[in-house]
Amino acid sequence: MVPMKQPVNSLPADNSVWDAVVVGAGISGLYMLHRLRQIGFSCQVIEAGADLGGTWYWNRYPGARCDTYSLEYSYSFCPQLEQEWQWSERYPSQGEIWRYLNHVAHRFDLRSGICFNTRVVSADFQPANNQWQLQLDPAQQLSCRFLLMATGCLSSPNMPDIDGLQTFKGPIYHTARWPQSPVDFSAQRVGVIGNGSSGLQIIPELAPQVKQLVVFQRTAQYAVPSRNRPLDRQEVTKIKADYPGFRARNRQQSSAQLSNVETCQQSALSVSPAERQQLYQASWQQGGFVFYATFNDLMRNQQSNQTAAEFIRTKIGQIVNDPQRAKLLSPQHVMGCKRPALENGYFETFNRPNVDLVDISANPIRSISPRAIHLQDQEYPLEAIVMATGFDAMTGALMKIDICGLNGLRLKEKWSSGPHNYLGLSINGFPNLFTITGPGSPSVLTNMMVAIEQHVEWISDCLQYMAQQGYDRIQASAEAEAEWVQHVNRVADETLYTNCNSWYLGANIPGKPRVFMPLVGFPPYAEKCRPVVAQGYQGFILS
Ligand code: NA7
Fold first, then answer.
1. Atom nearest to 195 CA in ligand 1
2. Which site in 74, 169, 197, 492 is 20 to 30 Å from 239, CA atoms measured?
3. Residue 505: inside a domain, yes or no?
4. Ligand 1 pocket, 336 CB below 6 A?
5. Residue with the nearest Cα to atom 32 of ligand 1?
6. Atom number, ligand 1, closest to the C-alpha of residue 200
7. Distance CA 542, CA 474 (A)
8. Counting atoms of ligand 1 from 1, which one is nearest the CA of 389?
């Protein structure tokens, strides 16, 4: 067990200019700090939370678990680290990932570079000396040459603005801001709003603990069984015997966590209905995201997509005893255009007598009073409410900071009609600022670990190149940025991803511009990044 050092809550007294400040001490911030130290940069990480871990610090609700395989959801930069860490289950729980990140921080002495309980409020670029001036909360100032945003894609919780929310007398929890100590829900009537990945994980955990669980569902969700299980020693040994090969195969996948499974290279329409059913059944049995890759055109051809959607609806009908409930739980939108989920007993939970399902699609929540949630024509008395309502994804955390670039240009203005950047890394008008897994890069559409490592390594290589060549300013050119935004949209338009109201499109946040934010396809993205570097950072202005 790694000894847990006390988090550092103050900055070193030294007022000198840092080579780099990293915002966020999650998976990307930790690795960025390590790489910057390796290239000899002085670096300070600023973290709003009381401890490290980012997503895995905040999302500690019952049932919180990653849906990428453990052996792939881990850093690949250190062979000894890969070999020494032992994952216990096919998918890592929040607790296990958090222990892993603590182990990494201890191994590479990362805590000494992080200032916790501190938020970056604003960042101003000073063209005269090419420095960023940061205002922090608690009040303090920092200066740095490079500002590296490791603020995460899903880190700014979406708390719906429901009339009367503040008047509720019981506790209101958000899955992404879960308390440190366990919550006792026994003998309570608990309402859960939301049934995305977080809702699907917490609902089966809460149901056996509470007196009554009332699930408020706006949109039914596609989900396939995760088939989580303890890891088999032999399978781990085999992977660890050729970890680089395993990682290389992972990097060749457009979607997440498919490196160690055979996926079908044919259209769903190219096989007979009987064979199709057989293949879906085999994927369903295997569990995990492989189901969504049973055929190679499920996110490109509506008819193919319908065959998978229908298979899942049939399964729901077989699992859920009450046909009326099964129908309500059966999604009707294009499968995968909202991020699909993995589940572990979710649909079975609706066979329990203490679980109610309330359809709020046509009859939305009107208000919350001190002891109940009210729809138009009905009220549900409750003692506690759980918001599993997701995030202001991809741009939320960045936009919370008042970032001001060249000529007084604010990021909030620049992105008022959607994120504009180059490679998901750099923004014209905002020199020496990089976003790790920013909008316009594959990020959430691939294994986040792969996306993070690629960006961190790309950024540190770039900073090293600048130091060697004597450059002290870099930003994306306006032309490269405009072409990149078009490219991201064009790629998305060739798929079915844009067919429904998802957080990929910002559609879950009232007033947010409706723009498809991640880039579809990791391997082609990585391919595009290589020549950019080889040609002396093509599309960037260096000075
Ligand atoms: P998601 O996937 O955004 O799910 C949020 C859920 O909350 C979803 O069912 C929403 O319904 C529902 N929601 C959001 N706002 C409201 C309001 N105002 N009223 C009722 N219902 C609402 O977030 P998760 O935390 O589950 O998962 C996020 C990602 O984390 C996940 O995709 C993985 O990548 C990990 P809607 O579908 O919008 O109708």
1. 9
2. 197
3. yes
4. no
5. 339
6. 26
7. 5
8. 7
Task: Specify the ligand 1 atom closest to the Cα of 507.
Answer: 38
Q: Which residue's CA is the closest to the ligand 1 atom numbered 18?
A: 160
> Along the 543 residues of the chain, how does pLDDT read in single tens digits?
444 444 555 676 666 899 999 999 999 999 999 999 999 999 999 999 999 999 999 999 999 999 999 999 999 999 999 999 999 999 999 999 999 999 999 999 999 999 999 999 999 999 999 999 999 999 999 999 999 999 999 999 999 999 999 999 999 999 999 999 999 999 999 999 999 999 999 999 999 999 999 999 999 999 999 999 999 999 999 999 999 999 998 888 755 445 545 567 899 999 999 999 999 999 999 999 999 999 999 999 999 999 999 999 999 999 999 999 999 999 999 999 999 999 999 999 999 999 999 999 999 999 999 999 999 999 999 999 999 999 999 999 999 999 999 999 999 999 999 999 999 999 999 999 999 999 999 999 999 999 999 999 999 999 999 999 999 999 999 999 999 999 999 999 999 999 999 999 999 999 999 999 999 999 999 999 999 999 999 999 999
Ramachandran region, residue 49 (left: φ > 0; alpha: ψ -120 to 50; beta: rest)? beta
How many residues are recorded in the chain?
543
Answer whether 76 contacts ligand 1 (Cβ < 6 A): no
End-to-end Cα distance, the chain: 48
Distance 508 CA to ligand 1 centre (A): 7
Domain boundaries, position 507: 18-154+393-542
Looking at residue 510, which CATH number applies to its domain? 3.50.50.60
Q: Is residue 332 included in any domain, yes or no?
A: no
Q: Kindly report the pTM of this predicted structure.
A: 0.96
Mode of pairing for the β-strands spanning 140-149 and 18-23: parallel
- CA–CA gap between residue 313 and residue 477 (Å, rounded): 47
The verdict on the CB of residue 178 being under 6 Å from ligand 1 is no
How many CB atoms within 10 Å of residue 235?
12
Q: Is the CB of 68 under 6 A from ligand 1?
A: no
CA angle in degrees (0–180, nearest 5) for 289-293-299? 110
Q: Is residue 320 part of a domain?
A: no
The answer to whether the CB of 437 is under 6 A from ligand 1 is: no
With a 6 Å cutoff on the Cβ, whether 389 touches ligand 1 is yes
Residue 462 lies in a domain: yes
* Spatial separation of the C-alpha atoms in residues 247 and 363, rounded to whole Å: 47
193 lines ligand 1 (CB under 6 A): yes
* Residue of 198, 329, 446 best suited for mutating to test ligand 1, as the one with most atoms within 8 Å of CB: 198
Domain count, the chain: 1
